Every structure is written in structure tokens, then in C-alpha cells.
């Protein structure tokens, strides 16, 4: 079962929710996705929703059976952007004034400026951070917002104490800086959610709201929800088929590219099955409804993509596990240092005096309270996980920059973790290995005859007709030709009359003479004049120029390329043979593609999926690394981790290499972020790390992450 979890702000929140749900009796698997707010729960037996809601509410979050709507996600995205802008507008001037003040320039009323600016940042744009921290604390656990809030409020409190007369340094500006860094992270998170929601919206846009139902009183247009199994519906030319069913009357040419990924319409007649979302390009059909509601093909597709979205690949699994204990540990250490300095000040003061000979900012005679607060704030500030938060996104930003120069777009960091281990690459045929656009490759007609049949084909919407017309336009000089008595025969071809001669263009009467061409993945169009065969036209979806070399290199890298296509087996194997692929899965539905991905994953393989169609979307999401061809459908592009913008299959090799290097940099960034904390926290606890210096050290740690990430461009 699936449901929405609201109120999560970080990986720690996700861990708390998953841990609470796993405690329920019978739960076998739980996956919670922060970006989409969706949870997937698998159990041995049905668990009442009220138990699930209680388990989640007990740790401070809310369960909803309805997924976040596009409007709600849009609203949250705009709110996070607004909060970030307000915070930046306050913090940047405060930072400038703080630097000037620390440089020796006396800024009038600096304490009051910090008091007002810090309060404005914390309690206006930072109010959601405070609320999240309070919810966590009130339910006896912590999250990243807890540390940020405690650090910000403690730093701001020093300004309050300084104003009321205590001899203590003010760190009010640092409070604003901490909140601002946190809000920038929230904005990035909201943007991720906003992007993720578009995938389902694209599928939903294919759904039909109404159907033409055949009743005793004639054809009545009814809402789709009122149509029942067994009803007869009428679908005209140009309309989408609203529900799954079987044709009981009529014949039509149907565009099923959303199922098979193939551009050519399929001819269907009585007793043939049809599915929702496909389009009747020509003809008129009466269909008996066999599936409604959630059982329809299109709704199953939506469900597949939703499930794939919620699957998790732990790119920061180590970081998540450590941060689960990091926050309470840091807070405990900060409190411990404050208590020790307050009660044992005289014991430790000689240490400060000796340290001041080396480090000028060490407080040697501030007294127990000031030194305790000094140590407490410094420990919290130094431990705020800014570098940790930048470790992954900065590496991805650098990777995105170099990728763009190579015609690649890296959208999603989650798949990068396993890119170095990819050993199996599944790829669609049409639009991936081939150009996806049928074109004339050879014919044996004279120019006049070809020009006549091209004029006839102008009256057809079939993709093969378009290929013939385009060829004539490019290779034959145009003349004024008037065609009469044009008739398109669904699933067979088209006829037309010119100067009392009747021309037929369509399927061959006998396919045997063209068997060699057809085995080579070509379509043969036969041309007759007055029922006498005068020639043929060979049409094929050409293989991309770089496909053969790309497959060869992938094999040399130790990967196994496998074709997974909705096309027929003969055509699929012919194309596979040309490009050098040995293993082929043909006549494969979108559901089957996902099953094939999972089959190899269960066998222990690391699977990449390359595709360009709606039918590839769920498989792209389910794979360890989804790669979409940039000239494909919007849904395929939205569902992928990497996009090849120019459609060159050889760019897959670049994508994998970039991902490998990027993941190495992410690991290095995470190491240095944790190493920095291990060194800096003890220094802050013993009172030799000034909070301002701690903030600067935190900044340098972030700069180190940025610099290390930028080196990705030098390695590619």
C-alpha cells in the first residue's frame, strides 16, 4: 500500500518514519521518499490505516491517503523560494556589517542591528525550521532542523545577553547565516519535489474525462467514472481510446506508440484488444469495455511510475546513518562543554592562558558564564552540517556543467552510486538504436510514377506515407498533378486515379520476393498501376550512425547490451544483428520491461536502461541508472537520471564515465566533511575555537567541498 507522509524535512526525518513503520506487526518492507513525500509499505497482512497514522504521528509527522497535488507542491515551492530570498536579503547586509565591525570599523548600534536582523531571520523566514525542530523535540527525537535551530537561537541569545549588560561577545549575525544556509537547502528540496510531480502529471494528461457510450437512445457522452464493464463505447478518428476493451465492430489504424514505442500505427479490427490512452488515427470503432478505474492500462502505467519514484537507492546511506546519531551527539557534547566550563572554570583556565600565547582569540578572563556560552555556541556552530549538505549537490553541479558540454544532462544523483558497477544495459530499439523516423532507402520506380504516388500519399496520415512524400520533395522536381478518386484502405494501403490510371500503394500481394529486405528490418511498399505491379519502395528506420561503435565500446568496458523492444521479433533481431547485440527481448510491454529490469537486479546485476518513449518511463525509473534520449517523450526525459540531449547513443559511455568520477568525488566530499567535524568539534569544546572562526572554518570546509567537486571538470 502507498500513502503520503507530510512534514519531513531531512534524511533523519525519513529514517524516523521508516523506523516507526517497521515496528508495526507484519511489516516486511518500508520505503519513504523525501522528494515525493510518498511511502510504500508491504506487509504480510492488511494493516489498518489508523494504526499507520498513529505510528507516524507518534514520531511527529502526518499521514494522508491522498498524494500531494500539483497545486500544493507548486505552493510549497514558491513559499520556500520566498523564504530563501527574504533570508538572503537580511543576512547579506548583516555579514558585510559584521566583517567591517570585526575589521576595527566601529558600526553604531551594531548589537541592536544584530538583535533585530537575527530575530527577523529566525522568526520570519526561519519559522518553519523552528517548527520542525520543535515537533522533533516534542516527540523525543531530533533532525537537522534541531541542530540548526539550537545553533541559531544560541548565537542570537548572545546578542540579547550582551545588550542586557553581560560581558559576552555577540554572534547574532551567525544566527542569520545558519538559518539562511538551511533555507537554501529547503529551496533545493522543494524544487526536487516540484520536478518529480511533473512526471505523474504528464501521464494524467493522457487520460480521457469522458466517453461516448452507446445506449438504446443513441450515443451519449458520459463521465469516464460512470462507464461500466460491458458497456459499448464509440471512438472516432483522432480520438483517444478512453478505456481498455475489445473491438466488436469496425476497423482502424491505431497509434500505440505509448505501449510499444514504435511510430507506425497498428491496424486493428474485430476481436482485437485496445488500451486506454492510444489514439485512433483513422477509422471508427465500437469497443466493449473490459477494464475500468485503476485496472486500465494507463492507470497501471501511472502506478508503475509512482512505485518506481518511491524506490530508494542509498547514495548517502553512510551519511544518513551517521547523521541519525550525529545531532544528539553534538548537542550533548555542546552541553557537556558548557557545563564543564561553568563549574570547572578555574581548573581549566590555565589551559586557556597557555593557549592564548598561540591563539589570539582565546578568552582567558571572560569568567565561567561567558566562557561556557562561548564553548557551547562554538560547538553547535562548528558542527552545523553545511559541508555535509553540499557534498552531493556540489559534485552534481560540477558534473552537470561538464556533461552539458558533452551533450548530456545529469538530472538525478541517486543512480550515480551504482554507475561504476553497471554491467547490464537494456536499451529500446526505436529512437534509441534507430532514428525513430522511417525514410525511403531505395526504390525502382521512375520519377514520374514516384511523383504520382507521392501526390496520392499526401492524402494519408500514415508515417510511411510521410516518408514517401518527403523523399519526393527532396529528390524529384515538383509538377502540378491532379489526383482523383482517392481512397485509403485501413491496414492495407491507398488508391488514387491519375489520367484514368488507377494506382495502388500498400502491402505487397506476395511478400516472398521481398523476404530478404524484410528480414533486414525493412518495410516494403508495393506499387501497382491498373492492378499490374510496377515497382516497390523500401522504407526503414535507419540505425544511428554511432550505434555500432557504441555497442562495441560497451562490450569492451565489460557490459552486456540487451535490446528490449515492443517491436516484432523479426525486425528486432535484424536491427540487433546489425549493431552487434546478441540478446533480444521483443514484443515487450511496459510492465514487462520493468519485470526484465527487476529480473536482472534480482540476479545481482547493476542495470542501466536506455529509452525514449512513454513505454520506457517506468523501466527508466526502476533501473539503477535511467538514460533517456533527448528527442524522446517528455515523460521518458522526466523519468530518467541522465538525458542524452542530441540523441547519440555513444554518449552513454560518456554518461557512465562522468557518473563514476562524480560518485568518487561525492565520497571524498563526505569524508572531508566528517573529518572536519572530528577535528573541529574537540577544539570548540575546549574553548580555543571562536564561534566566528568556527563559522569561517565551516565556510572553508564548504569551499573545500566546492573545490574538490570542481576538479571533476579537469578529469573529463
UniProtKB/TrEMBL annotation:
<keyword id="KW-0479">Metal-binding</keyword>
<feature type="transmembrane region" description="Helical">
    <location>
        <begin position="84"/>
        <end position="101"/>
    </location>
</feature>
<dbReference type="Pfam" id="PF00702">
    <property type="entry name" value="Hydrolase"/>
</dbReference>
<feature type="transmembrane region" description="Helical">
    <location>
        <begin position="107"/>
        <end position="126"/>
    </location>
</feature>
<feature type="transmembrane region" description="Helical">
    <location>
        <begin position="373"/>
        <end position="399"/>
    </location>
</feature>
<keyword id="KW-0460">Magnesium</keyword>
<dbReference type="InterPro" id="IPR018303">
    <property type="entry name" value="ATPase_P-typ_P_site"/>
</dbReference>
<dbReference type="InterPro" id="IPR008250">
    <property type="entry name" value="ATPase_P-typ_transduc_dom_A_sf"/>
</dbReference>
<dbReference type="Pfam" id="PF00122">
    <property type="entry name" value="E1-E2_ATPase"/>
</dbReference>
<dbReference type="GO" id="GO:0005524">
    <property type="term" value="F:ATP binding"/>
</dbReference>
<keyword id="KW-0186">Copper</keyword>
<keyword id="KW-1278">Translocase</keyword>
<dbReference type="InterPro" id="IPR036163">
    <property type="entry name" value="HMA_dom_sf"/>
</dbReference>
<keyword id="KW-0812">Transmembrane</keyword>
<dbReference type="InterPro" id="IPR006121">
    <property type="entry name" value="HMA_dom"/>
</dbReference>
<dbReference type="GO" id="GO:0005507">
    <property type="term" value="F:copper ion binding"/>
</dbReference>
<feature type="domain" description="HMA">
    <location>
        <begin position="1"/>
        <end position="64"/>
    </location>
</feature>
<dbReference type="InterPro" id="IPR001757">
    <property type="entry name" value="P_typ_ATPase"/>
</dbReference>
<keyword id="KW-0547">Nucleotide-binding</keyword>
<keyword id="KW-0187">Copper transport</keyword>
<keyword id="KW-0067">ATP-binding</keyword>
<dbReference type="GO" id="GO:0140581">
    <property type="term" value="F:P-type monovalent copper transporter activity"/>
</dbReference>
<dbReference type="InterPro" id="IPR023298">
    <property type="entry name" value="ATPase_P-typ_TM_dom_sf"/>
</dbReference>
<dbReference type="Pfam" id="PF00403">
    <property type="entry name" value="HMA"/>
</dbReference>
<dbReference type="InterPro" id="IPR023214">
    <property type="entry name" value="HAD_sf"/>
</dbReference>
<feature type="transmembrane region" description="Helical">
    <location>
        <begin position="670"/>
        <end position="693"/>
    </location>
</feature>
<feature type="transmembrane region" description="Helical">
    <location>
        <begin position="171"/>
        <end position="188"/>
    </location>
</feature>
<keyword id="KW-0472">Membrane</keyword>
<dbReference type="InterPro" id="IPR059000">
    <property type="entry name" value="ATPase_P-type_domA"/>
</dbReference>
<keyword id="KW-0597">Phosphoprotein</keyword>
<dbReference type="GO" id="GO:0016887">
    <property type="term" value="F:ATP hydrolysis activity"/>
</dbReference>
<dbReference type="InterPro" id="IPR023299">
    <property type="entry name" value="ATPase_P-typ_cyto_dom_N"/>
</dbReference>
<dbReference type="InterPro" id="IPR017969">
    <property type="entry name" value="Heavy-metal-associated_CS"/>
</dbReference>
<dbReference type="InterPro" id="IPR036412">
    <property type="entry name" value="HAD-like_sf"/>
</dbReference>
<dbReference type="GO" id="GO:0055070">
    <property type="term" value="P:copper ion homeostasis"/>
</dbReference>
<dbReference type="GO" id="GO:0005886">
    <property type="term" value="C:plasma membrane"/>
</dbReference>
<keyword id="KW-1133">Transmembrane helix</keyword>
<feature type="transmembrane region" description="Helical">
    <location>
        <begin position="147"/>
        <end position="165"/>
    </location>
</feature>
<dbReference type="InterPro" id="IPR044492">
    <property type="entry name" value="P_typ_ATPase_HD_dom"/>
</dbReference>
<protein>
    <recommendedName>
        <fullName>P-type Cu(+) transporter</fullName>
        <ecNumber>7.2.2.8</ecNumber>
    </recommendedName>
</protein>
<dbReference type="GO" id="GO:0043682">
    <property type="term" value="F:P-type divalent copper transporter activity"/>
</dbReference>
<keyword id="KW-1003">Cell membrane</keyword>
Amino acid at each position: 500500500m502507498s500513502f503520503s507522509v507530510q512534514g519531513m524535512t531531512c534524511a533523519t526525518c525519513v529514517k524516523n518514519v521508516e523506523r516507526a513503520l517497521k515496528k508495526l506487526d507484519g511489516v516486511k518492507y518500508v520505503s519513504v521518499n523525501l522528494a515525493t513525500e510518498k511511502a510504500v509499505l508491504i506487509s504480510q497482512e492488511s494493516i489498518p490505516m489508523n494504526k499507520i497514522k498513529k505510528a507516524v504521528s507518534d514520531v511527529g509527522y502526518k499521514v494522508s491517503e491522498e498524494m500531494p497535488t500539483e497545486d500544493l507542491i507548486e505552493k510549497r515551492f514558491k513559499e520556500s523560494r520566498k523564504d530563501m530570498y527574504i533570508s538572503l536579503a537580511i543576512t547579506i547586509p548583516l555579514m558585510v556589517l559584521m566583517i567591517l565591525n570585526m575589521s576595527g570599523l566601529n558600526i553604531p548600534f551594531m548589537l541592536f542591528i544584530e538583535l533585530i536582523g537575527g530575530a527577523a531571520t529566525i522568526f520570519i523566514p526561519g519559522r518553519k525550521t523552528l517548527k520542525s525542530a520543535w515537533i522533533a523535540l516534542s516527540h523525543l527525537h531530533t533532525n537537522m532542523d534541531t541542530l540548526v535551530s539550537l545553533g541559531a537561537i544560541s548565537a542570537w541569545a548572545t546578542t540579547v545577553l550582551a545588550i542586557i549588560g553581560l560581558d559576552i561577545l555577540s554572534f547574532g549575525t551567525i544566527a542569520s547565516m545558519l538559518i539562511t544556509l538551511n533555507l537554501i537547502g529547503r529551496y533545493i528540496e522543494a524544487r526536487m519535489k516540484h520536478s518529480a510531480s511533473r512526471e505523474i502529471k504528464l501521464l494524467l494528461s493522457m487520460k480521457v474525462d469522458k466517453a461516448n457510450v452507446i445506449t438504446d437512445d443513441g450515443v451519449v457522452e458520459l463521465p469516464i467514472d460512470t462507464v461500466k464493464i460491458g458497456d459499448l463505447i464509440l471512438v472516432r478518428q483522432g480520438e483517444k481510446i478512453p478505456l481498455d476493451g475489445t473491438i466488436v465492430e469496425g476497423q482502424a489504424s491505431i497509434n500505440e506508440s505509448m505501449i510499444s514505442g514504435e511510430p507506425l500505427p497498428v491496424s486493428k479490427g474485430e476481436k482485437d484488444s485496445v488500451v486506454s490512452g492510444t489514439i485512433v488515427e483513422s477509422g471508427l470503432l465500437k469497443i466493449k469495455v473490459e477494464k475500468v478505474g485503476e485496472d486500465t492500462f494507463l492507470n497501471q502505467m501511472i502506478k508503475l511510475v509512482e512505485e518506481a519514484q518511491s524506490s530508494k537507492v542509498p547514495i548517502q546511506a553512510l551519511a544518513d546513518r551517521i547523521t541519525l546519531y550525529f545531532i544528539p551527539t553534538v548537542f550533548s557534547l555542546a552541553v557537556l562543554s558548557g557545563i564543564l566550563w561553568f563549574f570547572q572554570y578555574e581548573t581549566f583556565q590555565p589551559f586557556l592562558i597557555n593557549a592564548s600565547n598561540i591563539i589570539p582569540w582565546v578568552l582567558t578572563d571572560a569568567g565561567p558564564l561567558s566562557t561556557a556560552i562561548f564553548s557551547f555556541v562554538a560547538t553547535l556552530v562548528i558542527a552545523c552540517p553545511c559541508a555535509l549538505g553540499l557534498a552531493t549537490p556540489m559534485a552534481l553541479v560540477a558534473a552537470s556543467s561538464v556533461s552539458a558540454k558533452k551533450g548530456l544532462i545529469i538530472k538525478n544523483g541517486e543512480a550515480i552510486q551504482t554507475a561504476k558497477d553497471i554491467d547490464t544495459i537494456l536499451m529500446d530499439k526505436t529512437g534509441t538504436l534507430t532514428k525513430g523516423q522511417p525514410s525511403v532507402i531505395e526504390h525502382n520506380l521512375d520519377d514520374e510514377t514516384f511523383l504520382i504516388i507521392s501526390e496520392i500519399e499526401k492524402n494519408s496520415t500514415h508515417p510511411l506515407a510521410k516518408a514517401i512524400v518527403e523523399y519526393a520533395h527532396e529528390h524529384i522536381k515538383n509538377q502540378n498533378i491532379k489526383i482523383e478518386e482517392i481512397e485509403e484502405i485501413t491496414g492495407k494501403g491507398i488508391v488514387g486515379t491519375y489520367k484514368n490510371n488507377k494506382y495502388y500503394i500498400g502491402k505487397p500481394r506476395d511478400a516472398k520476393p521481398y523476404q530478404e529486405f524484410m528480414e533486414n528490418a525493412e518495410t516494403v511498399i508495393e506499387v501497382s498501376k491498373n492492378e499490374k505491379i510496377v515497382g516497390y519502395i523500401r522504407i526503414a528506420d535507419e540505425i544511428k550512425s554511432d550505434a555500432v561503435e557504441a555497442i562495441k565500446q560497451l562490450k569492451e568496458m565489460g557490459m552486456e547490451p540487451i535490446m528490449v523492444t515492443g517491436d516484432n521479433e523479426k525486425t528486432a533481431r535484424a536491427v540487433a544483428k546489425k549493431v552487434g547485440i546478441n540478446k533480444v527481448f521483443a514484443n515487450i510491454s511496459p510492465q514487462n520491461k520493468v519485470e526484465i529490469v527487476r529480473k536482472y537486479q534480482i540476479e545481482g546485476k547493476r542495470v542501466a536502461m536506455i529509452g525514449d518513449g512513454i513505454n520506457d518511463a517506468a523501466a527508466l525509473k526502476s533501473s539503477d541508472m535511467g538514460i533517456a534520449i533527448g528527442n524522446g517523450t517528455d515523460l521518458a526525459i522526466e523519468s530518467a537520471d541522465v538525458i542524452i540531449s542530441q540523441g547519440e547513443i555513444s554518449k552513454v559511455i560518456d554518461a557512465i564515465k562522468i557518473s563514476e568520477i562524480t560518485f568518487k568525488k561525492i565520497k571524498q566530499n563526505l569524508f572531508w566533511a566528517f573529518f572536519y567535524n572530528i577535528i573541529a568539534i574537540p577544539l570548540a569544546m575546549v574553548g580555543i575555537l571562536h564561534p566566528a572562526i568556527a563559522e569561517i572554518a565551516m565556510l572553508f570546509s564548504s569551499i573545500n567541498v566546492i573545490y574538490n567537486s570542481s576538479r571533476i571538470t579537469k578529469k573529463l
